[in-house]
Structures are given as structure tokens and as C-alpha cells.
Amino acid sequence: MNINFLFSRIGLLIISIGLVICVLIISSLPSVRIDLTQDDLYSLSPGTKNIVSDLQGPLEIMFFYSESATEDTPQIRTYANRVQELLREIIIASNNRISLSVIDPQPFSEEEDLATQFGIQAVPISQGAPGIYFGLVVAQPEDRENNPQGRAAETLPLIRPELEQFLEYEFMKLITKVNEPDLQVVGLLTELDIDGGFDPVAGQATAQWMIMDIIRQLYAVQRVDNTAGEIDEEIDILMIVHPQGLSEQMLYAVDQFVMRGGKTMVFLDPNADSMVSRTQQGNLIPAGMSSELPGLLEAWGIEFPGDKVLTDNELALRVSMGQGQRPIAHLGMLGAQRNFLTQSDSVTSRLETINMSSPGVIRQAAGANTRFEALIVSSSDSMLMDARLLEDVTDPSILFDEFVSEGISHTIAARISGVIETAFPDGRPIVEVEALDEEIAALDEEDTIEEEPVSEHLSSSNSEVNILVFADTDMLSDRMWVQVGQFMGQRIPRPFSNNGDMVINALDNLGGGADLSSIRGRGTYSRPFTRVIQLQRQADDRLRVEEAELLDRLAEAEASLAELNQDENGELVGQVTPEIQAEVDRFNEQMLETRRSLREVQYQLTEDIEQLGANLKLINTALIPVLLSLLALLLSYLRAQRRKTVHA
Questions:
Q1: CA quadruple 505, 510, 513, 514: dihedral positive or negative?
Q2: Could you tell me the maximum CA-CA distance found in the chain, to the nearest angstrom?
Q3: Are 63 and 87 in contact (CB under 8 A)?
Q4: 554 and 518 assigned to the same domain
Q5: Judging by DSSP bridges, how do beta strands 185-189 and 197-199 pair with one another?
Q6: In this structure, are 60 and 171 located in the same domain?
Q7: 50-99 pLDDT tens trace
Q8: Are strands 316-319 and 382-386 parallel, antiparallel or unpaired?
Q9: Residue 565 — φ and ψ, nearest 5°?
Q10: CA–CA distance, 514 with 184 (Å, rounded to integer)
Q11: What is the pLDDT of residues 459-495, one digit of tens each?
Q12: Could you tell me the end-to-end alpha-carbon distance of the chain, in angstroms, rounded to an integer?
């Protein structure tokens, strides 16, 4: 074909018609997309497709977006396009069960009043600039006008930019809450301040941990009285955190709850260093006592050595002990990466990092009849240390003096399933006679005592139980996984690890919401630079060796100086002899040389990291252009060869 024909009127017309046909074909197949991201972040997950295909009734999504007010803000317009693309994908997957309305609220308009009804407010994008609307509402159309703020509607007042990689989960959470308005009940059994408390030192109430904020978005939370003898029948999932000193009646209630098929999640800890108690003088006392569930763990087929803390050289997090100090590895603070999280279980699947502090270990008891499936494991470069050793650690480097790798991997979290036998084969524990007599004596003689119905004692579980056990409670505390900010009077989480995702995944899995939990796990956090971590670990090892040699030389020099400073009778000489001065000069030279070696190790580490970064930058910026250039040259060469062949 003559190339000049393409630029003729007929050729241009043919090209135009071809482009129109291609556009029509592409637009007729809106669900066909190619997603080349590693975690398929721009494709709907199977969980989303399952949720929208099982909707109980039609739903309406209203996206309030000030399009006309953001004409000069390309970043917001790009983000808005991303939001609308995802919403359209959800609409397509729902087979028209969900409708979408994009609303641009103009000042003093009915659309602005509608946005206000649903709790969406205009937010200024910069100081002095007019506010824009950027929120989402999911509602049942038939109830939207009569009850816009009830359970028939759920609102996301502001779709923050940092939510971009979690948009699918946030949207599906709203859809799920509108589709299933009756929330499952989580029973919280703990004496810790995880749900908020009072600080006697500051004289004010303390906020609940962010994990409880997130749980309350999806579940109804009910506190379980530690002194009670029963667990409310309304509770669907029992969450036990750091149990200590539970009465026989409460242990029996937990036992029977599990036997009746109640879903249970337990957080144990040999050294709960994020939970502290305070004396009346305000001094902090470590609450590092071990968790305990006497009888129950044995009945479930679990062993939990409550006096041992897991240390791990490979998973050790680097912590800073003070301003201006070099971060050092802490063997008791661990960050389990993806390859230490079971990817075949929805609780830990596709998560990146779980941070823990002084965790313990759990293992399957000998002769246990239950199934034991690990969720989080340590590396083989690990060791169990005495929990008391970590209670008062101020310098993490001393842990390396005690560390000797055991060469085995330990289990930190596991799923327990199967049919179990009760821990109370003799039935309900008998209430103390004295306490019962006091209670009866307090009643008036004319009053009648109404006996409450007693649940039937179960010696064996009705069906297979499902228990999730974690050997760390500090993973729930804010300091291990999230930074909490404030925005418009609301607490905004900025997570840096997947601890919160894992807890929600666990609750969703126990409660049957596996589809929603599979979506949440898709969020990708900043991944560790494993090569840099390896370089830092090697440098730390060299530094510790150099420092140990320096301390040994210092001890030898002090012994030599002490010996030279005494006469034959063992008395002090009292003056600087030439021998003493020579020994001091020799030690000073050795110390300077050792310090020079330490600086060289640090300098070499910095050089290695910078060189690694430079190599990656070179590959990213130069490799692709070079490959494209080579491809273009190859095509040009092949075209030239083809022309020669044609002319020949």
C-alpha cells in the first residue's frame, strides 16, 4: 500500500471510521480491563463480586463531587476519575442492582441541602479557598427521603486521598452495612484499657485504642463483666484480651460458650509491656504478668509457655532509644513480613507486615485432638528468653549478649479447630457456700428467690469449634501499627502496618464475612527494603564485634594500669611513671583505631545504601529508554532489510 494513500481524503476517512469502530467496540465491553499491578489494585476482588451479586435489594450510590469547583485542580480531578472508575466497575458487577448518581452540589442548591442531610460538608482544599464536596452515600432508594440518616443510609463524608488503595474496601463496607443493617455483636472480655479508661497521673480519661474505633465501624461491641458467671446469648464473637485471674464461673462460661459453637478470638501475652498499671503516686509499674486461661488452653490442645518471650534476629525491628541516637535492632520487637504470614488463610492472606512487641509462642499440645494451623510464625533465627529479662530492658543491645539462635521456627498465632471436650467434666463449678449464704441473708424473708434457667452442661462441642489464638496483646496498641491524627474533630488512622487489617479479617472470618475481609487484605502498605535491612543487620553485627573488642581492650588496659600503679607491697605508687604513661599512650592509640573502625563501618553502610539507590535509579530511569531504543533500532533494521528484499 502506498503510504501517500493514508493521507488522502479517502485514507483519512477510512482511518476515522476505523477509530470510531474501535471506540464503539471498547465502550461496549466496559468490564474488560488489563490490570498489571502486582496485587490487582485496579480490579474488583472476588469478595466484592460476591457481595454485590447477593444484595437483598436495590441500592443507590450518590457521589457528591464539586466538579465545577475543581477545574483548576488536576490532582483532585484525577483522583475523582479514579473514584468514578471504581464505582462504575462495582455497578457493572452488580448487574444493575446498584445505581450511581454523580452530584455536583452548587451553592444554595437542593443538591447542597441533600449533601448536608447526609452529613457531607464542604472542605477547603487550601487556606482561603472555597470548600468542595467529595463524599459518598450508599442508601436504599425507598427510604432515602424519609430517613436519610438512619440505617438505610451510610455515609463516607470525605474520600481522603490516602484512602485510594483502600477505596474498594471502604465502598464495600458501606454497601454491606446498608444491605445487612443488623450488626453482629463482639463481646470484649478484658480488664485492660483497650476500650478507654482513666489516667490517674493526667487526671483525665484516655481514648480507646484505634483498633476499637475500627471494630465499632463494623460490629456492635458489648463489654463482658469479668465477675459474671454467664456470657450473653446475644454475643456472636467473644474477644478475650490478656485474661488474668478469671473466676471459675467465668472460665466455665467461656468453656460452654465455645462448646456451643461460639466464635472466639484470644490474645495472650507473656509480657504485655504496652499495658501498665499506676500506683497512687503515679509511678509506672510494668503489667508484664503472663496471660492465663487455666484448663481451657489444655482442653483446646494448646500449650502457652507464659514465662517465655520470643526473640528473633531476622524479624527484629529497629528502634530509636532517644533523640539523635542511632536506631538499633530490638530482638523483642518483631515485624513479621509476608513470607512469615500464612497466605492460604483469609486472616493473614495478602497482608504485608504485622508488628509485635515481646510476643510469646503457642504450640500444639501432645496428644491434642484439635487441628493446629499456624497463621504467624517466626524465623528459624530465633530464641525463647525469660520474660523477666525483657520487663526492664532500657538498652536493647544487651539482648544480643543473651541471644543464641535455637535454629527452629516458632508459632505466634494459630487457628484451632475440631471437636473439643470440656475443661469442666464435673459440670458447673459450685459457688462458694459462704458467698451464697451472704447473698441469701441480704434478702428479705418474705421475698421469693426466682431461679434463673440454667443452660444445659455440654461435655463435648456440638460441632467443630473455630478459635483464633494470638500470643501477643501489644499488637493491638496504637504504637505498634498506627499513627492517629485529627480531622474535623474525628480521629483519622494512618496505619504503617497491617495489625488492624488482621484483627478485622479475623472478626470477619469468624463472623462469616470472609468476602469483606478478603477485600481489606488487598491494601498494600509500604514494603520494607529487604536489601537495606540486610545491610543494616550486617553493619550492626560488625559494630557489636568492634565494640566488644574495644571493651575487652579497655578492661585489659585498666588491669595493666592498676598493676603498674602498685608497688611490690600492693600500695599505690601515687605518681605517673614512664611505664604507666607508655601504657596509657598505647591504649589511647588502640581506642582511636577502634573508633576509626566503627566510623568506617557506618560510612561503608551509608555508601552501600547510596550505591544501591543509585543503581536502582539508573535501572529505573535508563533501562526502559534503552530497551525501547534498542527495540526501535531493531524494527528499523528489519524494515530496512524488508525493503532491500522487496527491491531485490
A1: positive
A2: 122
A3: yes
A4: no
A5: unpaired
A6: yes
A7: 888 888 788 999 999 999 888 878 888 989 998 999 999 999 988 888 99
A8: unpaired
A9: -90, 10
A10: 14
A11: 998 888 889 999 999 999 999 999 888 766 677 788 8
A12: 18
Q: For residue 554, tell me if it sits in a domain.
A: yes
Nearest partner of 432 among 254, 293, 294, 248, judged by Cα: 248
Length, in residues, of the chain: 648
What is the SS3 assignment for 140-209?
CHHHCCCCCCCCCEEEECCCCHHHHHHHHHHHHHHHHHHHCCCCCEEEEECCCHHHCEEECCCCEEECCC
Determine the 3-state secondary structure of 354 from DSSP. strand
DSSP letter for each residue of 44-61: --HHHHHHHHT-SS-EEE
Long-range interactions of 150-154: CB distance < 8 A, separation 24+: 151/177, 151/178, 151/181, 152/178, 152/181, 153/118, 153/178, 154/178
Please indicate, yes or no, if residue 88 is contained in any of the structural domains: yes
HSE value, Cβ hemisphere, 13 Å, CA-based, for 50: 10
Cell of 425: 467434666
366 and 501 co-located in one domain: yes
Contact yes or no for 91/49 (Cβ under 8 A): no
Residues 60, 91 within the same domain = yes
CATH number at residue 279: 3.40.50
Domain boundary residue, one of 469, 497, 527: 527
Crossing angle (nearest 10°) for helices 74-93 and 46-53: 60
Average pLDDT per 10 consecutive residues for the chain, totaling 648 residues: 60 76 65 56 80 87 91 86 91 89 91 91 79 92 54 82 79 86 90 80 80 90 89 94 92 94 94 58 50 93 95 90 75 93 86 93 93 95 92 83 93 94 90 53 50 74 90 94 77 88 90 68 52 64 64 66 63 64 72 68 65 67 73 80 74
**132 and 267 in one domain?**
no
Kindly state whether residues 190 and 131 are assigned to the same domain.
no
Taking each helix axis from N to C end, the angle separating 210-218 and 499-511, rounded to the nearest 10 degrees, works out to 30
Domain holding 253, by residue range, is: 183-306+359-379+409-428+459-527
Same domain membership, residue 269 and residue 418:
yes
377: cell is 510464625
Nearest to 527 by CA among 339, 337, 356, 346: 337
Domain-terminating residue out of 468, 502, 527: 527
The count of structural domains within the chain is: 3
What sign has the CA pseudo-torsion 347, 349, 350, 355? positive
> In the numeric block, which cell numbers belong to residue 444?
428479705
Q: Do 191 and 216 lie in a common domain?
A: yes
Q: Residue 71: give its domain's CATH number.
A: 3.40.30.10
DSSP state of 619: I
Q: Which residues of 573-591 are buried (b: 16+ CB within 10 A; e: fewer)?
A: eeeeeeebeebeeebeebe
In the three-class reduction of DSSP (H, G, I as helix; E, B as strand; rest coil), residue 138 is classed as: strand
**Does residue 30 fall inside a structural domain?**
no
Please tell me the distance from the alpha carbon of residue 85 to that of residue 167, in angstroms, as a whole number: 11
Determine the residue type at 386.
Answer: D
Residue 116: inside a domain: yes
Measured distance CA(351)–CA(343) in Å, rounded: 8
Grid coordinates given for 78: 484525577
